[in-house]
Design brief:
By secondary structure, the chain is an alpha+beta fold. It contains 4 helices and 2 strands; from the N terminus they run H-H-E-E-H-H. It is elongated. The structure holds zinc ion. Zinc ion binds next to helix 3.
Amino acid sequence: MNVTDLLRSLALDPADLKPTPHRQATAQDAAERLGPDPLPCAACGTPARSTRIIDTPSHGRRWLELCRDCMLATADRRRPTEPLAATLEVLRDAAEQVGVTVRVLVDSPKAA
Ligand SMILES: [Zn+2]
């Protein structure tokens, strides 16, 4: 999901999100945002469980804190771009290289 779609799906205006520091953001910056008193979710106001930096087209880099539910609601659940056959071939090659036998069970998705 691109940033514009993400913000739209959460009904957020990037102007309402805090800008990131001009320096490189660090893990400490993120930890402070989610510490013992986490910032509220930008979408619903409950305590945030995740934070990330998004680069918005109109307002530049902004912090985006989300609670678990809002984060899951906007998670990208697209299927992998690699076809299954190519993925299995890589797995088969890796198993051969280390000399092990693997058995892979694949659950085919049901047609919608
Ligand atoms: Zn939320």
